[in-house]
Amino acid sequence: MFKLRQLTTITTPKKYLLLFVSFLFSASLFAQDGKALFTANCASCHSVTKKLTGPALAGVESRWPSREKLHDWVHNSSKVIQSGDEYAVNLFNEYNKTQMTAFPQLSAQDIDAILDYIKVEETKAAAATAAPVGETQTAADNGDQTLLYGILTLILAIVAFTLLYINANLKKMADDKEGIPATEPIPFWRNKAYITVFTLVLFLIGGYLITDGAVGLGRQQKYEPHQPIFFSHKVHPGVNQINCQYCHIGVYQGKQATIPTVNICMNCHMAINEYKGEKLFNAEGKEVDGTAEIQKLYKYAGFEPGKPWDPSKAKPIEWVRIHNLPDHVFFSHAQHVNAGRVQCQTCHGEVTSYNEMFQFAPLSMGWCINCHRTTKVQFESNGFYSMYEKYKEDIKNHKMDSVTVKDIGGAECQKCHY
Amino acid sequence: MKIRLIIFCLSAGFIIAGCSDVRRDPGRVYVPDMGPSRAYETYDALDSNKFTQNVAEAGRKIFYNHLPVAGTVARGEDMPFPLAMDAPGDTTNYVASKQIESPIKSLDSVTMKEAERLYLINCGICHGAKLDGDGPLYKGGNGPFAAKPATLVGDAKYEEMPAGQMFYSVTYGKNLMGSYASQLTRVQRWEVIAYIKSKQAKTGATTSKPAAADSSAGK
After folding, report:
1. What CATH number did the domain enclosing B162 receive?
2. pLDDT of residue A235
3. How many domains is chain B built from?
4. Residues of B with Cβ-Cβ distance to A99 under 8 angstroms
5. Beta pairing class for A287-288 and A280-281
6. Does A242 sit within 8 Å of B182, measured CB to CB?
7. What would the pLDDT profile of A272-302 be if each residue is shown by its tens digit?
8. N or C: which end of chain A has fewer CB within 10 A?
9. Chain B residue with minimal CA distance to A100?
10. Whole-number Cα distances in Å, B66 to A203, A319, A334, B40, B57
11. Which stretch of DSSP H or E encloses residue B188?
12. ipTM score for this prediction
């Protein structure tokens, strides 16, 4: 490109030499500049392999009679349509009469460079689909290690019993030697010491389980229901770094964090119609096909890839609610996230590592109160707490280290129950 | 004796191994007193015996269609925008939106910070934290988003685009960008645009002046 632009100002003999040289490198040279030109001018509406706002550009040359015609189209597409070119008119109608932006500033060479780049990318894409890269990834070792622990316990138990048995035998032998008459051995189920220990252990374990179960009644920690679409937080806020508040728009202003509506999903998924990242696994370790899950979203949205989307056809997705706080507790996300500046992860855990969402916190009253007792109020440049002048003064004069939520009434009954 | 012990240990091992810690069931509630709300809460399924979305049935059942009462203006939704969305293939209102002036001319330091926060949450994911059209979803063509997002700073087309037209695109969507009317209020949208314009003014003077002349026809 750089060389070609210079050509016009260079004298003829040199020009031919340069032309020859540039021919030698032409393929890679064009493709280089073609990429830059493509990203700057075309990529917002076209992809080589995917249908976006405009058609996929792979094989574009074979669809047009000549490069000249394509040049005309890129320079001013409406002119070509007006001239009555059949292919151009059909194309215009197929894409909902969306006019392609005219690019009069692109020279014929520029467009050719872009076309060459498309050709290179096209063959690359074809090669990639023909020979899929060998999948080396082993099934995620997301370790169900219970079996391992079970076996270990078993082995240890056997070893312990064997040792006890050996010990008893040795004792008997020693007694024999010293002439102490052997007492009639008592079977262990009639041995009082064994019975006492067994009852005690049973009582402790049983008591623990019963108390734990009774306390846990009505609580849903670790609840991880099947959802209508396998939505992975690991992929969205994790790998792709989407901010929590992009989707949970209510978290800053309202009581509810809000579950995103289909149109928020479609902001990105209008263009992203396949999943190509790391393999996905559900909680049971079964593999999940990400692309099929995106297709499920399209069903709810009433969207067919390649056609313009009509949001009025969308149906809400019936997600299963995970966090169910009883009605007698008031909780507001805005108060915690906006005024209190609590991180999402404090109550929801490392969401960016969850493939399936579950309830991280117990949501018990003890858990709330403990946090209110220990969390320091973020007074600094925080307009919400501007009225607590005395506390601020005390902190300034080193009378207090910090003010906890409890100090400003965070442990009062009617703060949450009214 | 020993055989019994071995059978017991083995079966106990299998029972422990068979337990899964994935909790798919919400469990039971003991005395669900004041548990479920009696009032209609967000995301509650509407009981069709009590509620209706049909105005004609309004007297017999509770009429509720999730829409704000006609004539009310939500907080942050003042600053009306007079143009409706174009029909597909039509660009009349999109072109007309160039003439609409932004009601927010400049931002003070507090609103600037807020606008930046909103930009980074809602726009930066595609248009990049530096407004260079290279956010984490595009990643120079390696991200999952196939189309290149607009380069807001450094591209003459977007540097020259009037605030009104930007507002149109943010409100109704443009090409592969969806509508952000549900995520940002009108005031927030104007603030974000003012933020983008201020960033463009800062860096725009030094970049892309030569390219400015030849792209005016490209809109």
Report:
1. 1.10.760.10
2. 92
3. 1
4. 91
5. antiparallel
6. no
7. 888 988 889 988 888 999 999 999 999 999 9
8. C
9. B218
10. 55, 18, 21, 11, 16
11. helix B186-204
12. 0.82
